[in-house]
Amino acid sequence: MKLSNGNKGHALVRYDDARSIDTLTIQQGNDETLLMGLAAAGALHHLKQEYLTRFWNSEGLQLVIVCGSGNNGGDGLALAGLLCADPDRYPDADINKRMSVYALPPKSAASQFYEAKLRRQGVTIRPLQKLSEDVAEMVKHNELTIVEALLGTGQSRLPAGDIATALQAIDTIRNAGRAKLVALDVPAGLTESGLADSAPTPDCVYTFGSEKAVTALIPGLRVRRIPCGFESQNEEAVFAASTALYRSEPSDALHFFRRNDADHKYSAGHAWMVAGEHDMEGAALLALQAFLGSGGGYVRHFHPSPQSRERYLSILPSAIYHDATDFVKACEVQKPPRSILIGPGMRSDTVDSLREALIEGLTILSRRQQRLTVILDAAACSLAFDDRFPSVQCLITPHVAEWKSLGGPAVSCVDDLEAARAFSGRIHAYLKGPVSFLFAPDQIAVYNAPLPSLAVAGSGDLFGGLLLRAACGHEADRPICDIVSACVALQRRSAESSMHPEQQLKFIQEILA
Ligand SMILES: NC(=O)C1=CN([C@@H]2O[C@H](COP(=O)(O)OP(=O)(O)OC[C@H]3O[C@@H](n4cnc5c(N)ncnc54)[C@H](O)[C@@H]3O)[C@@H](O)[C@H]2O)[C@@H](O)CC1
Protein backbone atom coordinates (compact mmCIF):
# COMPACT_ATOMS: atom_id res chain seq x y z
CA MET A 1 0.00 0.00 0.00
CA LYS A 2 1.27 3.46 -0.86
CA LEU A 3 0.27 6.54 1.05
CA SER A 4 1.32 9.39 -1.16
CA ASN A 5 2.30 12.76 0.21
CA GLY A 6 1.19 14.94 3.06
CA ASN A 7 -1.91 12.83 3.27
CA LYS A 8 -1.39 11.55 6.76
CA GLY A 9 -2.88 8.18 7.44
CA HIS A 10 -2.21 4.67 8.60
CA ALA A 11 -2.93 1.18 7.39
CA LEU A 12 -5.93 -0.75 8.64
CA VAL A 13 -5.84 -4.51 8.90
CA ARG A 14 -8.64 -7.00 8.66
CA TYR A 15 -8.84 -9.86 11.17
CA ASP A 16 -7.48 -12.33 8.61
CA ASP A 17 -4.56 -9.99 7.91
CA ALA A 18 -3.87 -9.70 11.65
CA ARG A 19 -3.73 -13.48 11.93
CA SER A 20 -1.38 -13.71 8.93
CA ILE A 21 0.94 -11.11 10.48
CA ASP A 22 0.89 -13.04 13.79
CA THR A 23 1.66 -16.32 12.04
CA LEU A 24 4.53 -14.96 9.95
CA THR A 25 6.04 -13.20 12.97
CA ILE A 26 5.87 -16.31 15.11
CA GLN A 27 7.32 -18.47 12.30
CA GLN A 28 10.35 -16.21 12.29
CA GLY A 29 11.14 -17.07 15.88
CA ASN A 30 9.19 -14.44 17.79
CA ASP A 31 7.71 -16.53 20.53
CA GLU A 32 3.99 -15.94 21.26
CA THR A 33 4.85 -15.36 24.92
CA LEU A 34 7.25 -12.61 23.94
CA LEU A 35 4.65 -10.88 21.75
CA MET A 36 2.03 -11.09 24.48
CA GLY A 37 4.46 -9.64 27.02
CA LEU A 38 5.42 -6.77 24.74
CA ALA A 39 1.77 -6.03 24.01
CA ALA A 40 0.99 -5.99 27.74
CA ALA A 41 4.00 -3.79 28.54
CA GLY A 42 2.91 -1.25 25.93
CA ALA A 43 -0.65 -1.28 27.21
CA LEU A 44 0.44 -0.81 30.82
CA HIS A 45 2.66 2.12 29.85
CA HIS A 46 -0.30 3.98 28.33
CA LEU A 47 -2.76 2.87 30.96
CA LYS A 48 -0.58 4.39 33.67
CA GLN A 49 -0.35 7.64 31.75
CA GLU A 50 -4.00 7.90 30.78
CA TYR A 51 -6.22 6.07 33.26
CA LEU A 52 -4.11 5.01 36.25
CA THR A 53 -2.03 8.15 36.75
CA ARG A 54 -2.29 8.08 40.53
CA PHE A 55 -2.89 4.38 40.86
CA TRP A 56 -0.47 3.65 43.68
CA ASN A 57 -1.22 6.92 45.49
CA SER A 58 -4.97 6.76 45.48
CA GLU A 59 -6.77 4.08 47.43
CA GLY A 60 -9.99 4.94 45.58
CA LEU A 61 -8.64 4.01 42.15
CA GLN A 62 -9.61 0.47 41.23
CA LEU A 63 -8.69 -1.66 38.25
CA VAL A 64 -10.71 -4.58 36.93
CA ILE A 65 -9.23 -6.83 34.24
CA VAL A 66 -11.63 -9.16 32.46
CA CYS A 67 -10.04 -11.94 30.40
CA GLY A 68 -11.37 -14.42 27.84
CA SER A 69 -9.86 -17.80 27.05
CA GLY A 70 -7.91 -16.79 23.90
CA ASN A 71 -4.70 -14.83 23.52
CA ASN A 72 -6.55 -11.57 23.98
CA GLY A 73 -7.29 -12.82 27.48
CA GLY A 74 -3.60 -13.71 27.71
CA ASP A 75 -2.75 -10.06 27.09
CA GLY A 76 -4.97 -9.13 30.03
CA LEU A 77 -3.28 -11.67 32.30
CA ALA A 78 0.17 -10.48 31.24
CA LEU A 79 -0.87 -6.88 31.93
CA ALA A 80 -2.06 -7.77 35.41
CA GLY A 81 1.24 -9.56 36.07
CA LEU A 82 3.26 -6.53 35.03
CA LEU A 83 1.24 -4.21 37.24
CA CYS A 84 2.03 -6.42 40.26
CA ALA A 85 5.72 -5.76 39.71
CA ASP A 86 5.31 -2.12 38.74
CA PRO A 87 8.32 -0.19 40.13
CA ASP A 88 5.99 2.61 41.27
CA ARG A 89 4.09 0.43 43.75
CA TYR A 90 4.55 0.64 47.53
CA PRO A 91 6.35 -2.46 48.77
CA ASP A 92 3.48 -3.45 51.06
CA ALA A 93 0.64 -2.48 48.70
CA ASP A 94 -2.05 -5.15 48.63
CA ILE A 95 -2.63 -5.66 44.92
CA ASN A 96 -5.75 -7.74 45.55
CA LYS A 97 -7.42 -4.72 47.14
CA ARG A 98 -6.65 -2.55 44.11
CA MET A 99 -7.01 -4.91 41.18
CA SER A 100 -9.57 -7.62 40.42
CA VAL A 101 -8.95 -10.18 37.71
CA TYR A 102 -11.76 -12.25 36.21
CA ALA A 103 -10.84 -14.88 33.64
CA LEU A 104 -11.88 -17.93 31.70
CA PRO A 105 -9.36 -20.79 31.78
CA PRO A 106 -6.68 -19.82 29.25
CA LYS A 107 -6.18 -22.06 26.23
CA SER A 108 -2.73 -21.32 24.80
CA ALA A 109 0.59 -22.12 26.44
CA ALA A 110 1.50 -18.41 26.37
CA SER A 111 -1.70 -17.39 28.19
CA GLN A 112 -1.24 -20.21 30.69
CA PHE A 113 2.30 -18.97 31.35
CA TYR A 114 1.00 -15.51 32.31
CA GLU A 115 -1.82 -16.98 34.38
CA ALA A 116 0.69 -19.04 36.38
CA LYS A 117 2.97 -16.02 36.77
CA LEU A 118 0.06 -14.00 38.12
CA ARG A 119 -0.82 -16.71 40.64
CA ARG A 120 2.81 -16.86 41.76
CA GLN A 121 2.55 -13.16 42.59
CA GLY A 122 -0.39 -13.89 44.86
CA VAL A 123 -3.15 -12.49 42.69
CA THR A 124 -6.61 -13.99 43.05
CA ILE A 125 -8.04 -14.93 39.67
CA ARG A 126 -11.81 -15.18 39.88
CA PRO A 127 -13.87 -17.18 37.39
CA LEU A 128 -15.34 -14.90 34.74
CA GLN A 129 -18.84 -16.02 35.74
CA LYS A 130 -18.34 -14.28 39.13
CA LEU A 131 -18.22 -10.84 37.47
CA SER A 132 -22.03 -10.57 37.25
CA GLU A 133 -22.34 -11.33 40.97
CA ASP A 134 -19.89 -8.54 41.84
CA VAL A 135 -21.55 -5.81 39.78
CA ALA A 136 -23.45 -4.33 42.74
CA GLU A 137 -20.17 -3.87 44.61
CA MET A 138 -18.35 -2.38 41.62
CA VAL A 139 -20.88 0.31 40.82
CA LYS A 140 -20.12 1.82 44.25
CA HIS A 141 -16.56 2.68 43.21
CA ASN A 142 -15.94 6.25 42.16
CA GLU A 143 -12.83 5.67 40.12
CA LEU A 144 -12.97 2.36 38.34
CA THR A 145 -11.09 1.41 35.20
CA ILE A 146 -12.09 -1.78 33.42
CA VAL A 147 -9.69 -3.44 31.01
CA GLU A 148 -11.65 -5.67 28.69
CA ALA A 149 -9.57 -8.53 27.25
CA LEU A 150 -12.42 -10.89 26.44
CA LEU A 151 -12.08 -11.34 22.69
CA GLY A 152 -9.61 -10.11 20.11
CA THR A 153 -9.08 -10.82 16.47
CA GLY A 154 -10.17 -14.43 16.99
CA GLN A 155 -13.84 -13.42 17.20
CA SER A 156 -15.96 -14.31 14.23
CA ARG A 157 -19.43 -14.53 15.72
CA LEU A 158 -21.61 -12.63 18.14
CA PRO A 159 -20.63 -12.99 21.80
CA ALA A 160 -22.31 -15.93 23.47
CA GLY A 161 -22.37 -17.70 26.82
CA ASP A 162 -20.03 -16.46 29.54
CA ILE A 163 -18.54 -13.78 27.27
CA ALA A 164 -21.97 -12.31 26.52
CA THR A 165 -22.87 -12.34 30.21
CA ALA A 166 -19.59 -10.65 31.13
CA LEU A 167 -20.22 -7.94 28.53
CA GLN A 168 -23.65 -7.29 30.01
CA ALA A 169 -22.07 -6.93 33.44
CA ILE A 170 -19.52 -4.45 32.06
CA ASP A 171 -22.31 -2.53 30.39
CA THR A 172 -24.22 -2.28 33.67
CA ILE A 173 -21.15 -0.99 35.49
CA ARG A 174 -20.58 1.56 32.68
CA ASN A 175 -24.18 2.71 32.78
CA ALA A 176 -23.84 3.42 36.48
CA GLY A 177 -21.70 6.21 35.12
CA ARG A 178 -18.28 6.26 36.64
CA ALA A 179 -16.20 3.46 35.14
CA LYS A 180 -13.77 3.94 32.27
CA LEU A 181 -13.48 1.11 29.79
CA VAL A 182 -10.34 0.26 27.83
CA ALA A 183 -10.47 -2.63 25.35
CA LEU A 184 -7.30 -4.51 24.45
CA ASP A 185 -6.65 -4.92 20.73
CA VAL A 186 -10.33 -4.73 19.70
CA PRO A 187 -13.57 -4.49 21.70
CA ALA A 188 -15.27 -7.83 22.36
CA GLY A 189 -18.44 -8.06 20.27
CA LEU A 190 -16.94 -6.20 17.33
CA THR A 191 -16.76 -8.53 14.34
CA GLU A 192 -16.26 -7.60 10.71
CA SER A 193 -20.05 -7.91 10.34
CA GLY A 194 -20.65 -5.18 12.91
CA LEU A 195 -20.86 -4.35 16.60
CA ALA A 196 -23.11 -6.56 18.76
CA ASP A 197 -25.98 -4.61 20.36
CA SER A 198 -24.91 -5.90 23.76
CA ALA A 199 -21.30 -4.72 23.42
CA PRO A 200 -20.37 -1.54 25.31
CA THR A 201 -18.33 0.97 23.30
CA PRO A 202 -15.05 1.55 25.12
CA ASP A 203 -13.53 4.91 25.97
CA CYS A 204 -10.39 3.79 24.22
CA VAL A 205 -8.91 0.81 22.44
CA TYR A 206 -5.27 -0.15 22.89
CA THR A 207 -4.58 -2.06 19.72
CA PHE A 208 -1.47 -4.13 19.06
CA GLY A 209 0.43 -3.36 15.89
CA SER A 210 -1.62 -1.72 13.14
CA GLU A 211 -5.17 -0.56 13.76
CA LYS A 212 -7.83 -3.10 12.88
CA ALA A 213 -10.35 -1.94 10.28
CA VAL A 214 -13.26 -2.69 12.60
CA THR A 215 -12.38 0.08 15.04
CA ALA A 216 -11.90 2.67 12.29
CA LEU A 217 -15.59 2.36 11.44
CA ILE A 218 -16.96 3.20 14.91
CA PRO A 219 -17.63 6.97 14.92
CA GLY A 220 -15.14 8.82 17.06
CA LEU A 221 -13.69 5.75 18.80
CA ARG A 222 -10.26 6.52 20.20
CA VAL A 223 -7.64 3.97 19.18
CA ARG A 224 -4.07 3.89 20.38
CA ARG A 225 -1.64 1.77 18.37
CA ILE A 226 0.91 -0.08 20.47
CA PRO A 227 3.95 -1.86 19.04
CA CYS A 228 4.19 -5.47 20.17
CA GLY A 229 7.11 -6.95 18.25
CA PHE A 230 5.72 -7.55 14.77
CA GLU A 231 8.24 -7.38 11.93
CA SER A 232 7.68 -4.65 9.35
CA GLN A 233 8.38 -6.80 6.29
CA ASN A 234 5.60 -9.18 7.37
CA GLU A 235 3.13 -6.34 7.73
CA GLU A 236 4.16 -4.94 4.33
CA ALA A 237 3.76 -8.36 2.68
CA VAL A 238 0.26 -8.76 4.10
CA PHE A 239 -0.76 -5.21 3.13
CA ALA A 240 0.50 -5.74 -0.42
CA ALA A 241 -1.64 -8.85 -0.84
CA SER A 242 -5.01 -7.12 -0.37
CA THR A 243 -6.80 -3.93 -1.42
CA ALA A 244 -5.12 -1.04 0.33
CA LEU A 245 -7.23 0.02 3.27
CA TYR A 246 -6.23 2.96 5.41
CA ARG A 247 -7.49 5.54 7.84
CA SER A 248 -6.92 9.10 6.76
CA GLU A 249 -6.09 11.62 9.45
CA PRO A 250 -6.60 15.34 9.01
CA SER A 251 -3.25 16.91 8.21
CA ASP A 252 -1.98 20.28 7.21
CA ALA A 253 -2.71 20.42 3.49
CA LEU A 254 -2.72 24.14 2.76
CA HIS A 255 -0.26 23.65 -0.10
CA PHE A 256 -3.14 22.23 -2.19
CA PHE A 257 -4.63 25.75 -2.19
CA ARG A 258 -1.38 27.66 -2.64
CA ARG A 259 -0.96 30.47 -5.17
CA ASN A 260 2.34 31.47 -6.77
CA ASP A 261 3.63 35.01 -7.19
CA ALA A 262 3.62 34.58 -10.97
CA ASP A 263 0.04 33.27 -11.16
CA HIS A 264 -2.54 34.71 -13.51
CA LYS A 265 -6.23 33.95 -13.22
CA TYR A 266 -6.05 30.73 -15.27
CA SER A 267 -2.89 29.30 -13.75
CA ALA A 268 -4.22 29.98 -10.23
CA GLY A 269 -7.04 27.56 -10.97
CA HIS A 270 -9.52 27.44 -13.83
CA ALA A 271 -12.78 25.60 -13.25
CA TRP A 272 -16.38 25.33 -14.39
CA MET A 273 -19.54 24.61 -12.49
CA VAL A 274 -23.07 23.52 -13.38
CA ALA A 275 -25.27 24.08 -10.34
CA GLY A 276 -27.89 26.11 -8.51
CA GLU A 277 -31.32 26.01 -10.12
CA HIS A 278 -33.96 28.65 -9.38
CA ASP A 279 -34.46 29.10 -5.62
CA MET A 280 -31.42 26.93 -4.94
CA GLU A 281 -28.87 29.49 -6.05
CA GLY A 282 -27.48 29.59 -2.50
CA ALA A 283 -25.88 26.16 -2.92
CA ALA A 284 -24.10 27.24 -6.09
CA LEU A 285 -23.06 30.56 -4.55
CA LEU A 286 -21.55 28.84 -1.56
CA ALA A 287 -19.59 26.47 -3.81
CA LEU A 288 -18.48 29.37 -6.03
CA GLN A 289 -17.40 31.40 -3.01
CA ALA A 290 -15.53 28.40 -1.60
CA PHE A 291 -13.75 28.01 -4.93
CA LEU A 292 -12.74 31.66 -5.17
CA GLY A 293 -12.17 32.06 -1.42
CA SER A 294 -9.75 29.12 -1.37
CA GLY A 295 -7.66 30.62 -4.13
CA GLY A 296 -9.33 29.64 -7.43
CA GLY A 297 -8.63 32.10 -10.22
CA TYR A 298 -11.38 31.81 -12.83
CA VAL A 299 -14.77 30.15 -12.75
CA ARG A 300 -17.42 29.81 -15.44
CA HIS A 301 -20.81 28.98 -13.99
CA PHE A 302 -23.75 27.41 -15.87
CA HIS A 303 -27.12 27.81 -14.15
CA PRO A 304 -30.24 25.86 -15.14
CA SER A 305 -32.78 28.72 -14.83
CA PRO A 306 -32.29 31.94 -16.84
CA GLN A 307 -34.10 33.97 -14.17
CA SER A 308 -31.31 33.20 -11.67
CA ARG A 309 -28.83 35.42 -13.52
CA GLU A 310 -29.69 38.66 -11.70
CA ARG A 311 -29.37 37.01 -8.32
CA TYR A 312 -25.98 35.55 -9.17
CA LEU A 313 -24.64 38.78 -10.61
CA SER A 314 -25.82 40.88 -7.71
CA ILE A 315 -24.19 38.60 -5.12
CA LEU A 316 -21.04 37.38 -6.86
CA PRO A 317 -20.12 39.40 -9.96
CA SER A 318 -16.65 37.85 -10.26
CA ALA A 319 -17.86 34.57 -11.81
CA ILE A 320 -18.71 34.26 -15.52
CA TYR A 321 -22.36 33.24 -15.92
CA HIS A 322 -24.08 31.23 -18.63
CA ASP A 323 -27.43 29.55 -19.08
CA ALA A 324 -27.00 25.79 -18.84
CA THR A 325 -28.32 25.54 -22.41
CA ASP A 326 -25.00 27.09 -23.51
CA PHE A 327 -23.03 24.22 -21.99
CA VAL A 328 -22.33 22.11 -25.08
CA LYS A 329 -21.36 25.14 -27.14
CA ALA A 330 -19.03 26.34 -24.39
CA CYS A 331 -17.41 22.91 -24.24
CA GLU A 332 -16.67 23.24 -27.95
CA VAL A 333 -15.31 26.76 -28.05
CA GLN A 334 -14.21 28.01 -24.61
CA LYS A 335 -10.84 27.36 -23.01
CA PRO A 336 -11.37 23.98 -21.32
CA PRO A 337 -11.14 23.96 -17.51
CA ARG A 338 -9.01 21.65 -15.42
CA SER A 339 -11.90 20.71 -13.13
CA ILE A 340 -15.67 20.87 -13.27
CA LEU A 341 -18.25 20.51 -10.52
CA ILE A 342 -21.81 19.51 -11.36
CA GLY A 343 -24.69 19.13 -8.95
CA PRO A 344 -24.94 21.49 -5.94
CA GLY A 345 -28.46 22.90 -5.75
CA MET A 346 -29.88 20.78 -8.58
CA ARG A 347 -32.82 18.41 -8.19
CA SER A 348 -32.78 15.06 -9.95
CA ASP A 349 -35.41 16.11 -12.54
CA THR A 350 -33.22 19.09 -13.46
CA VAL A 351 -30.20 16.83 -13.82
CA ASP A 352 -32.31 14.51 -15.99
CA SER A 353 -33.46 17.37 -18.21
CA LEU A 354 -29.82 18.36 -18.75
CA ARG A 355 -28.43 14.82 -18.91
CA GLU A 356 -27.93 14.62 -22.70
CA ALA A 357 -26.25 18.01 -22.86
CA LEU A 358 -24.04 17.34 -19.84
CA ILE A 359 -22.82 14.00 -21.18
CA GLU A 360 -22.26 15.43 -24.65
CA GLY A 361 -20.41 18.46 -23.27
CA LEU A 362 -18.26 16.38 -20.92
CA THR A 363 -17.38 14.06 -23.79
CA ILE A 364 -16.19 17.04 -25.84
CA LEU A 365 -14.29 18.49 -22.88
CA SER A 366 -12.59 15.17 -22.14
CA ARG A 367 -11.16 15.19 -25.67
CA ARG A 368 -9.94 18.77 -25.38
CA GLN A 369 -8.59 18.52 -21.80
CA GLN A 370 -6.89 15.17 -21.13
CA ARG A 371 -6.39 15.99 -17.45
CA LEU A 372 -9.96 16.98 -16.67
CA THR A 373 -11.37 16.05 -13.26
CA VAL A 374 -15.16 15.83 -13.07
CA ILE A 375 -16.70 16.18 -9.61
CA LEU A 376 -20.34 15.12 -9.31
CA ASP A 377 -22.43 15.97 -6.27
CA ALA A 378 -25.98 15.25 -5.10
CA ALA A 379 -28.37 14.20 -7.90
CA ALA A 380 -25.64 14.66 -10.53
CA CYS A 381 -23.73 11.65 -9.13
CA SER A 382 -25.98 9.50 -11.33
CA LEU A 383 -24.24 10.86 -14.45
CA ALA A 384 -21.14 8.80 -13.60
CA PHE A 385 -23.15 5.59 -13.95
CA ASP A 386 -24.53 6.51 -17.39
CA ASP A 387 -23.10 4.17 -20.03
CA ARG A 388 -22.23 7.17 -22.19
CA PHE A 389 -20.23 8.95 -19.50
CA PRO A 390 -16.77 9.65 -20.95
CA SER A 391 -13.62 7.99 -19.75
CA VAL A 392 -12.33 10.74 -17.50
CA GLN A 393 -11.11 11.09 -13.91
CA CYS A 394 -14.32 11.33 -11.92
CA LEU A 395 -15.16 11.84 -8.25
CA ILE A 396 -18.69 11.52 -6.90
CA THR A 397 -19.55 12.90 -3.46
CA PRO A 398 -22.90 11.43 -2.39
CA HIS A 399 -24.20 11.30 1.17
CA VAL A 400 -25.68 8.03 2.36
CA ALA A 401 -29.21 8.57 0.97
CA GLU A 402 -27.84 9.65 -2.43
CA TRP A 403 -25.49 6.66 -2.49
CA LYS A 404 -28.46 4.39 -1.79
CA SER A 405 -30.51 5.94 -4.58
CA LEU A 406 -27.61 5.25 -6.95
CA GLY A 407 -27.90 1.57 -6.00
CA GLY A 408 -24.78 1.67 -3.82
CA PRO A 409 -24.60 -1.11 -1.21
CA ALA A 410 -24.98 -0.22 2.48
CA VAL A 411 -21.67 0.43 4.21
CA SER A 412 -21.93 -0.27 7.91
CA CYS A 413 -19.18 -2.76 8.63
CA VAL A 414 -15.86 -4.06 7.31
CA ASP A 415 -17.56 -6.88 5.40
CA ASP A 416 -19.40 -4.24 3.31
CA LEU A 417 -16.32 -2.35 2.15
CA GLU A 418 -15.22 -4.45 -0.79
CA ALA A 419 -18.70 -4.54 -2.34
CA ALA A 420 -18.86 -0.74 -2.13
CA ARG A 421 -15.45 -0.40 -3.75
CA ALA A 422 -16.48 -2.80 -6.52
CA PHE A 423 -19.72 -0.83 -7.03
CA SER A 424 -17.84 2.41 -7.61
CA GLY A 425 -15.57 0.62 -10.10
CA ARG A 426 -13.30 3.03 -11.96
CA ILE A 427 -14.96 6.06 -10.31
CA HIS A 428 -13.75 7.59 -7.06
CA ALA A 429 -16.62 7.77 -4.60
CA TYR A 430 -16.43 9.87 -1.44
CA LEU A 431 -19.34 8.68 0.68
CA LYS A 432 -20.17 11.35 3.25
CA GLY A 433 -21.35 10.56 6.78
CA PRO A 434 -20.21 10.72 10.41
CA VAL A 435 -17.61 8.23 9.20
CA SER A 436 -16.81 8.93 5.54
CA PHE A 437 -15.18 6.68 2.97
CA LEU A 438 -13.29 7.16 -0.22
CA PHE A 439 -13.69 4.18 -2.53
CA ALA A 440 -11.04 4.28 -5.25
CA PRO A 441 -10.19 1.68 -7.89
CA ASP A 442 -7.22 0.42 -5.88
CA GLN A 443 -7.82 1.56 -2.32
CA ILE A 444 -10.31 2.41 0.39
CA ALA A 445 -9.77 5.28 2.82
CA VAL A 446 -11.75 5.77 6.02
CA TYR A 447 -12.26 9.28 7.43
CA ASN A 448 -13.38 8.94 11.02
CA ALA A 449 -13.32 12.18 12.93
CA PRO A 450 -16.97 13.14 13.33
CA LEU A 451 -17.57 16.83 13.84
CA PRO A 452 -21.19 17.75 14.68
CA SER A 453 -20.70 21.26 13.30
CA LEU A 454 -20.33 19.79 9.80
CA ALA A 455 -23.88 18.40 9.94
CA VAL A 456 -25.45 21.57 8.58
CA ALA A 457 -27.00 22.58 5.24
CA GLY A 458 -24.34 24.04 2.99
CA SER A 459 -21.43 21.89 4.25
CA GLY A 460 -21.54 19.74 1.12
CA ASP A 461 -21.60 22.81 -1.16
CA LEU A 462 -18.62 24.34 0.57
CA PHE A 463 -16.80 21.03 0.32
CA GLY A 464 -17.64 20.83 -3.41
CA GLY A 465 -16.13 24.27 -3.97
CA LEU A 466 -12.94 23.28 -2.15
CA LEU A 467 -12.65 20.10 -4.21
CA LEU A 468 -13.17 22.07 -7.41
CA ARG A 469 -10.39 24.41 -6.35
CA ALA A 470 -7.88 21.75 -5.27
CA ALA A 471 -8.55 19.73 -8.44
CA CYS A 472 -7.46 22.63 -10.66
CA GLY A 473 -4.70 24.13 -8.51
CA HIS A 474 -0.96 23.60 -8.52
CA GLU A 475 -1.35 20.15 -6.93
CA ALA A 476 -4.05 19.03 -9.36
CA ASP A 477 -1.93 16.14 -10.60
CA ARG A 478 -1.92 14.51 -7.17
CA PRO A 479 -4.08 11.42 -6.70
CA ILE A 480 -7.76 12.11 -6.05
CA CYS A 481 -7.39 10.56 -2.58
CA ASP A 482 -4.88 13.25 -1.63
CA ILE A 483 -7.06 16.03 -3.01
CA VAL A 484 -10.04 14.76 -1.04
CA SER A 485 -7.94 14.48 2.13
CA ALA A 486 -6.67 18.03 1.73
CA CYS A 487 -10.22 19.37 1.40
CA VAL A 488 -11.46 17.30 4.34
CA ALA A 489 -8.62 18.66 6.46
CA LEU A 490 -9.25 22.29 5.48
CA GLN A 491 -13.00 22.07 5.99
CA ARG A 492 -12.57 20.37 9.36
CA ARG A 493 -10.18 23.06 10.48
CA SER A 494 -12.71 25.71 9.56
CA ALA A 495 -15.60 23.82 11.16
CA GLU A 496 -13.75 23.72 14.47
CA SER A 497 -13.98 27.50 14.49
CA SER A 498 -17.60 27.88 13.51
CA MET A 499 -20.80 25.98 12.81
CA HIS A 500 -21.98 27.97 9.76
CA PRO A 501 -20.53 27.46 6.29
CA GLU A 502 -20.43 31.23 5.63
CA GLN A 503 -18.32 31.73 8.75
CA GLN A 504 -16.19 28.71 7.85
CA LEU A 505 -15.53 30.30 4.50
CA LYS A 506 -14.30 33.50 6.17
CA PHE A 507 -11.98 31.43 8.32
CA ILE A 508 -10.68 29.56 5.25
CA GLN A 509 -9.90 32.88 3.55
CA GLU A 510 -8.06 34.06 6.67
CA ILE A 511 -5.85 31.00 6.96
CA LEU A 512 -5.07 30.95 3.26
CA ALA A 513 -4.35 34.69 3.10
N1 LIG B 1 -0.31 -14.10 18.44
C1 LIG B 1 0.20 -12.89 18.43
O1 LIG B 1 1.08 -12.65 17.72
C2 LIG B 1 -0.38 -11.86 19.30
C3 LIG B 1 -1.70 -11.93 19.71
N2 LIG B 1 -2.19 -11.07 20.58
C4 LIG B 1 -3.55 -11.15 21.08
O2 LIG B 1 -4.21 -12.32 20.67
C5 LIG B 1 -5.48 -12.00 20.16
C6 LIG B 1 -5.91 -13.06 19.22
O3 LIG B 1 -5.93 -14.23 19.99
P1 LIG B 1 -6.84 -15.47 19.61
O4 LIG B 1 -6.60 -15.88 18.23
O5 LIG B 1 -6.63 -16.46 20.68
O6 LIG B 1 -8.30 -14.91 19.63
P2 LIG B 1 -9.20 -14.33 20.81
O7 LIG B 1 -8.42 -13.91 21.95
O8 LIG B 1 -10.10 -13.38 20.14
O9 LIG B 1 -10.05 -15.58 21.34
C7 LIG B 1 -10.55 -16.52 20.51
C8 LIG B 1 -11.19 -17.58 21.39
O10 LIG B 1 -12.47 -17.17 21.79
C9 LIG B 1 -13.47 -18.04 21.24
N3 LIG B 1 -14.49 -17.17 20.65
C10 LIG B 1 -14.43 -16.53 19.46
N4 LIG B 1 -15.54 -15.80 19.26
C11 LIG B 1 -16.30 -15.96 20.37
C12 LIG B 1 -17.56 -15.47 20.76
N5 LIG B 1 -18.24 -14.66 19.97
N6 LIG B 1 -18.05 -15.80 21.96
C13 LIG B 1 -17.35 -16.63 22.76
N7 LIG B 1 -16.16 -17.14 22.44
C14 LIG B 1 -15.64 -16.82 21.26
C15 LIG B 1 -12.79 -18.84 20.17
O11 LIG B 1 -13.38 -20.11 20.11
C16 LIG B 1 -11.37 -18.87 20.65
O12 LIG B 1 -11.21 -19.91 21.59
C17 LIG B 1 -5.30 -10.65 19.55
O13 LIG B 1 -6.50 -9.96 19.39
C18 LIG B 1 -4.37 -9.99 20.55
O14 LIG B 1 -5.10 -9.45 21.61
C19 LIG B 1 -1.29 -10.19 21.30
O15 LIG B 1 -0.84 -10.95 22.35
C20 LIG B 1 -0.20 -9.69 20.45
C21 LIG B 1 0.52 -10.78 19.74
From TrEMBL:
<keyword id="KW-0067">ATP-binding</keyword>
<keyword id="KW-0630">Potassium</keyword>
<feature type="domain" description="YjeF N-terminal">
    <location>
        <begin position="18"/>
        <end position="236"/>
    </location>
</feature>
<keyword id="KW-0520">NAD</keyword>
<keyword id="KW-0479">Metal-binding</keyword>
<keyword id="KW-0456">Lyase</keyword>
<feature type="domain" description="YjeF C-terminal">
    <location>
        <begin position="248"/>
        <end position="513"/>
    </location>
</feature>
<dbReference type="GO" id="GO:0110051">
    <property type="term" value="P:metabolite repair"/>
</dbReference>
<comment type="similarity">
    <text>In the N-terminal section; belongs to the NnrE/AIBP family.</text>
</comment>
<dbReference type="Pfam" id="PF03853">
    <property type="entry name" value="YjeF_N"/>
</dbReference>
<keyword id="KW-0521">NADP</keyword>
<comment type="function">
    <text>Bifunctional enzyme that catalyzes the epimerization of the S- and R-forms of NAD(P)HX and the dehydration of the S-form of NAD(P)HX at the expense of ADP, which is converted to AMP. This allows the repair of both epimers of NAD(P)HX, a damaged form of NAD(P)H that is a result of enzymatic or heat-dependent hydration.</text>
</comment>
<dbReference type="GO" id="GO:0005524">
    <property type="term" value="F:ATP binding"/>
</dbReference>
<keyword id="KW-0413">Isomerase</keyword>
<dbReference type="GO" id="GO:0046872">
    <property type="term" value="F:metal ion binding"/>
</dbReference>
<comment type="similarity">
    <text>In the C-terminal section; belongs to the NnrD/CARKD family.</text>
</comment>
<dbReference type="GO" id="GO:0052856">
    <property type="term" value="F:NAD(P)HX epimerase activity"/>
</dbReference>
<keyword id="KW-0511">Multifunctional enzyme</keyword>
<protein>
    <recommendedName>
        <fullName>Bifunctional NAD(P)H-hydrate repair enzyme</fullName>
        <ecNumber>4.2.1.136</ecNumber>
        <ecNumber>5.1.99.6</ecNumber>
    </recommendedName>
</protein>
<dbReference type="InterPro" id="IPR030677">
    <property type="entry name" value="Nnr"/>
</dbReference>
<dbReference type="GO" id="GO:0052855">
    <property type="term" value="F:ADP-dependent NAD(P)H-hydrate dehydratase activity"/>
</dbReference>
<dbReference type="Pfam" id="PF01256">
    <property type="entry name" value="Carb_kinase"/>
</dbReference>
<dbReference type="InterPro" id="IPR000631">
    <property type="entry name" value="CARKD"/>
</dbReference>
<dbReference type="InterPro" id="IPR036652">
    <property type="entry name" value="YjeF_N_dom_sf"/>
</dbReference>
<keyword id="KW-0547">Nucleotide-binding</keyword>
<dbReference type="InterPro" id="IPR029056">
    <property type="entry name" value="Ribokinase-like"/>
</dbReference>
<dbReference type="InterPro" id="IPR004443">
    <property type="entry name" value="YjeF_N_dom"/>
</dbReference>
